[in-house]
Amino acid sequence: MQTKDLHHIKKAFKETDVICIIDKEGKILYYNNYNDIHNKLGTEDVVGKPLLEVYPWLTEETSTALNVLRTGQAIINQPQVVQLGDGTDVNAINTAFPLKNKEGILGAVSLSYDINSITTPPVPKSLKSRKHNLGARYTFEDIITQNADMIGIINRLKKVSKHNSNIFIYGETGTGKELFVHAIHNASRRSSMPFISQNCAAIPETLMESLIFGTVEGSFTGAVNKKGLFELANGGTIFLDEINSMPLSLQAKLLRVIEDRKVRRIGGNAEFETDVRIIASTNEPPDKLLKNNKFRRDLFYRLSVVNTEIPPLRERKGDIQLLCNHFIHEFNRMFEENVKGLEAQVKKLFMQYHWPGNIREFKNCIEGAFNSVEGNLILLQDIPSYIGKSHRIEMNDDGIDFKIQKELSLRENTEVLEKYLIVEALKKAEKNITRASNLLEIPRQSLYNKLKKYDISQQE
């Protein structure tokens, strides 16, 4: 056993609320609940039973213990939603290790603690992991997810972070692209060097060039000697957010800087060597930008040595409860409230809503609810009205009564209606995919793709 593994084991045992050991079939062999927080279960209630029977809200994909059984690799400090006996959801941190002998994996041990039970506010992970970098506040540990695709992206970017290749990230507005960029910088060899972030859509085109490349006094009226972003970020990382807002003429100059690794201030003759890793992002699909000639192909190829897409919240609905608990915990401290969770109707609405603004919209929704909540549960009346309105599709004798929502775009209104029609077809077909696809007059594979897109379960 490696020293670092022993350290994690000791730390996990010291902080743990629950210890659970399972065999290779996933049945519980040992269970000890020190703080009596998880469903108030005793050893006699769970030993000998399958893990997923005791914890029905878990799946083979979201259970850390079952993931360890499958991969044989330890999982350290993985966020996980735990449902208490009264129906309340809390966030837990799980650490799981495989139990092996020469013949293979015998089982797994899982150690869990409820982060809401910690009375002393912990130092944020982002601050503990930060070195001397300028501006990068987050690490990969700050990314809250139990989604398999997201975990895969994190693991890939952790590996990529150690190198110097440029990175191109696509994700809809509010998916957390900047958080990933901060984490990449903090995990890189450049973490002690500057981190410079610039949203290209936030500055006028006329000022963008001077901001990025710098200026020489007298080059134009009011110009002074000033370093540009590349000089300021030298040795570190520069993040160009919404780079699709950059004019094509400026994209050509940026390409030259990347190729020559030199930058010249506006109005100057001297060239400065630059050693900068560039991470660029866009909130529009790259193929669409290239097709519409909004982005230079040669620049895209230079920036997308590593290309990553961050999935929208509607494609990772399993993270909603985890994120909800995190934001409730955050806003309880900010608003000095004691909110425990959501009422059942709100939970259902959150899982049905498409969240076009993604995590940013979701966080703002929770914060908005805290401004009106009166009890210890967030009620439907505390949720912004536009979220409820977006799902007002009802059946009457004449068919579907679908009210167009002014707050939503044509595409978003169409998606709401399409999801409803798919769910209704599945009900009429009694969950039979072939019959449902015939009712909808689309190929079976197209229906499977739409089920995945809208996160519709055939078991609903």
Automatic annotation (TrEMBL):
Q: Which SUPFAM superfamilies match?
A: Homeodomain-like, P-loop containing nucleoside triphosphate hydrolases, PYP-like sensor domain (PAS domain)
Sigma-54 factor interaction domain boundaries: 143-371
CDD domains the record matches: AAA
Keywords carried by this UniProt record: ATP-binding, Nucleotide-binding, Transcription, Transcription regulation
Per its UniProt entry, which superkingdom is the organism in?
Bacteria
InterPro entries reported for this sequence:
AAA+_ATPase (IPR003593), AAA_lid_NorR (IPR058031), Homeodomain-like_sf (IPR009057), HTH_Fis (IPR002197), P-loop_NTPase (IPR027417), PAS-like_dom_sf (IPR035965), PAS_4 (IPR013656), Sigma_54_int (IPR002078)
Q: Which PROSITE patterns match?
A: SIGMA54_INTERACT_1, SIGMA54_INTERACT_2, SIGMA54_INTERACT_4
GO terms for biological process, alphabetical: regulation of DNA-templated transcription
Q: Name one GO molecular function term.
A: ATP binding
Q: What is this protein called?
A: Sigma 54-interacting transcriptional regulator
